[in-house]
Amino acid sequence: MRIRQVLGSVRLKAALSLGMVLGLGSVGTLAAWSTTASTTSGTFVSGTVDIKFDDGTTNGNQGLAGSPYIVALPTGTLLPGQSKAAAVKVKNGGTLGFTYTGVLSVATPGLSLTSVVTAGAPTVNASSNTCSGTGGVLNSARTVVAGAVDTICVQITLPTASLSTDQGVSGSVNLVLTATAVNG
């Protein structure tokens, strides 16, 4: 019986030893290395697009639909063939550069005025004042950097061949500008 006890004891020891090796091996694989990192961005602010008419005040004039900005064309009557012109200063009151386009229209039904917009200030002479340069400035986008002012010239002309129905008619023009932010 002693052999049986010795064999049983050896088997028991072998089984226990095997359990110890397997047990320690699995315990060793339970540990894992780990780490975390985090970051927070700095403060940021979105940019602004703010097109205004520069009327000499600090902030300029928005010219909203309810209270439009009035462009001061020279006063007085127009005779056939004469023109009146005025500088319009377009101000970028935002923090981003923008491009702008516009539409100029005569807002007087039945009056045969023609209108043009050019770059720069008007040229004044004895009989009328006109915009120098070629028209069509508002047909392509004009760029204005943040805080800058772009000067355009608005001119209306009563054609030489005006009809007699144009006599004594008052008129006005509307200028609508639309700005779009420039990336960068």
TrEMBL record:
InterPro entries, A to Z: Signal_pept_SipW-depend-type
Domain of life: Bacteria
Keywords: Signal
Endpoints of the signal sequence: 1-31
The protein's name: Ribosomally synthesized peptide with SipW-like signal peptide
Species annotation: Rhodococcoides corynebacterioides
